[in-house]
Amino acid sequence: MHVFVRHCNYSPSSAHKKRDTWFTHEKCFKNLLEVFKDHSITVFFDGDPTKHFVSRYEGFTVKTYDQGGTDAKSLKGLLEYVHSLNIPGDEIIYICEDDYVHKPGSPEKILEGLSVGSDYVTLYDHPDKYFSQYMQVYGQGLDFKTQLVKGPTTHWRTTPSTTSTYACRSSTMNADYDIHIKYLDRDHHRFLELLLLHKRCLVTPLPAWSTHCEYGYLSPYVDWGDLLV
Known about the structure:
By secondary structure, the protein is an alpha/beta fold. The protein has a single domain (2-227), classed as Spore Coat Polysaccharide Biosynthesis Protein SpsA, Chain A (Alpha-Beta Complex), CATH 3.90.550.10. The chain contains 7 helices and 11 strands. It has helices at 25-35, 71-84, 106-115, 134-138, 170-175, 177-182, 187-198, and strands at residues 2-8, 40-46, 61-65, 92-96, 100-102, 120-121, 148-150, 155-158, 166-169, 202-206, 210-212. The strands form 2 sheets. The protein has a 9-stranded mixed sheet with strand order 3-2-1-4-9-6-10-8-7, sandwiched between helices. The protein has a two-stranded antiparallel sheet with strand order 5-11.
């Protein structure tokens, strides 16, 4: 598995987000290094990493990028970089943001999610899918009905969208590359187009194996702070 995590010295799109008291970006990074230690990890750094905490750790590759400055630009740079690597089509790519926590066993859960017939896997059970008005506000007329699939170790639900943290096979990423580039700062619309026009399938485990660390939007039923040291 090829893991690509984006970092920077300062993110204006993230600075305003409310966080729990247990959260730091460094704790999330240490968690990622431990959970995915048996896999290839690349830190895609927007800017100069020499004064950032990533410079104090080992066991991964650092790819610097000096044409970013925004979340959309850094994501574009990462997608272009991944595309240029020509990773064989059956290998798994995991694109990850810098404010995620993962349970131990997350790599195996990604493999399982792809094995149940999906094209994309998110380990994040986004709470917005449980808002009573979700389809009216976000669905844009989408007639989406959640399906539950029994996997070898957990249940999986189909979901219409997720953030810019997701896994897929390289062949899927290459086929959908133009759509990912099209929706750099609109992750919800990205997956709606993949679902509606390209008949892609995105699944998430129940309960979740990761969470986005924004206060009020944590995956439910897990004490995520207990996973950070």
